[in-house]
Each structure stands twice: as C-alpha cells, then as structure tokens.
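Fresh eyes needed here. Kindly weigh in on this sequence plus structure tokens:
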Amino acid sequence: MMPKYENLGNFFDAKDKTPCLLSCITMKLLCDHMLGSLAKWLRIFGFDTLYPDATTNDDEVLHIAKAEKRLLLSRDKELILRGKKVKLDVLEIQTTDLDEQLAEVLTHIQIDSTQVLTRCTLCNTPLISVEKKAIKTHIPPKVFETRDQFWYCSVCNKYYWMGTHYENMIEKINELTNKNNQ
C-alpha cells in the first residue's frame, strides 16, 4: 500500500509531481505518539527525528512541526487533518508493521550512509566519537577488549559501540534498502 501525501509541494518535482528523494541531512522529521518504533529506527538511519513524550499534546506536536519545519509522520487521522489545515508537510503512515512503515518513508527520503548510526536512539542527539582509553570504566570489560570505536550521547550519558546489536541493525538496514531499491 502506497502512502498518502498531503501538502508536500516542496518535496515533489514541480513538473511531474513525482516524489523527490531527500537526504537525511536536510530532512527533519516528527513522528506522532503512535510511531515510537519508527522514530527509533529513523534515528538509527541518521534522520533528525523528534518523538513527543506522553505529556506533549497534539497542539504542541503541530506547533513543533511548523516551527521547526519538520515533516509530520502520523497514523492519527485527526492529527493528519489538522496538520493539513495549517499547511504542514504530512506523510500518512498507513500500516502498523514497522518494516512497512520504514519502507513507506524510505521511498521518499534518501538515506545518507555517512549518517547511519550517528544519533542517539533514545533522544535524537548527534553522537560524539570518544577515545577508547577515556571510557574504560564506563563499558563492560569484554567490550573494551574487543572493540575500538565508541560514541557517546551527552544528553543520555549513553555509550555506543559496534557490537552484535550494531551488526543486526546494519543487516536490517541493508534488507530494507535492498527491498526499496527493487
């Protein structure tokens, strides 16, 4: 099932109205309350993706999307209608299946491979590369012995490294991008 687009004038080629692929460097996204897993995976792909906490109401979601010029991704029919009324760029996500949600988004936004795994999956903050010797006391000894590259989220105080979780994410990214390119 193809996604429905509304108010995406600046995201389409003006001549034929075909979707243009946009880079994750320039694209800023906001996932609604129903799309937490999608938000996490879009961050893994390197997209600047906001996800509202439970205290953020729909009015605030719309305000943030408009003020920060973010593409609103939503499954909420009412929120989509309200977004259209205030001329927001909206992508209606029509499925609950995560892989299908990602495929919907990735048909219109190009992944920049240099941005993959550069954002904190929890808070969206860009990660900082850190020296191995500086974090020895912050990570498990086996990880310290077997890995050489590490990244840090200054907001969450969380460390990242290329372990099996990383390898599983790369495998999923490759599966999704290969499906999208067929």
Helices lie at 36-44, 58-67, 77-85, 98-106, 141-146, 164-181. The beta strands are 4-6, 22-23, 28-31, 48-50, 71-74, 90-92, 109-110, 128-130, 150-153, 158-161. The longest strand covers residues 28-31.
